[in-house]
Amino acid sequence: MSKATKTINVEKAGVDVRAVFPKENYKIMIAGLAVVVVGFLLMMGGNSDDPNTFKPEEVYSFRRITLAPIVILLGLVVEIYAIMRRPK
Fold first, then answer.
1. Distance from C-alpha of 66 to C-alpha of 41, rounded to nearest angstrom
2. How far apart are CA 59 and CA 65, in angstroms?
3. With pLDDT > 90 as the criterion, what percentage of the chain qualifies?
4. How far, in Å, CA of 61 to CA of 33, rounded?
5. Segment 29-52 mean pLDDT
6. Transmembrane segments in this chain: where (predicted)?
7. Looking at the whole model, is its pTM more than 0.85?
8. Can you list the pairs that 37-43 forms with residues at least 24 positions away whose Cβ atoms lie under 8 Å?
9. Cα distance between residue 25 and residue 79, in whole Å
């Protein structure tokens, strides 16, 4: 038996082939993903020269505890908008 793959010509089958979302929605999704990545980048950091010392002002800073989660949530809201947006 041969292991030949069957190819189906979509045009002959009469199947309508199109993307799940319009091009604009994908652009908005990429923007939302970029905002989420920026939020995670804001949350990371904290290189310490001495691993035996704990610096609470670095760990519990405004940037990591407040700003980064807000930016991540805004990115998720942009993603939800991109998914729910109807094409014109």
1. 13
2. 8
3. 48
4. 24
5. 89
6. 28-45, 65-84
7. no
8. 37/75, 38/71, 38/75, 39/68, 39/69, 39/70, 39/71, 39/72, 39/73, 39/74, 39/75, 40/68, 40/72, 42/67, 42/68, 42/71, 43/68, 43/69, 43/72
9. 9
Token pair in block for residue 46: 């904290």
Q: Given the structure tokens 């089958």, which residue do they identify? A: 13
What single string gives the DSSP state of each residue in the chain?
A: ---PPP---HHHHT-----SS-HHHHHHHHHHHHHHHHHHHHH-----S-TT---HHHHT-HIIIIIHHHHHHHHHHHHHHHHHPPP-
pLDDT band at 10 (very low <50, low <70, confident <90, very high): low
In which residue are the tokens 């920026």 written?
A: 38
Q: Which two tokens stand for residue 58?
A: 């670095």
> Rounded to 5 degrees, what are φ and ψ at 41?
-65, -35
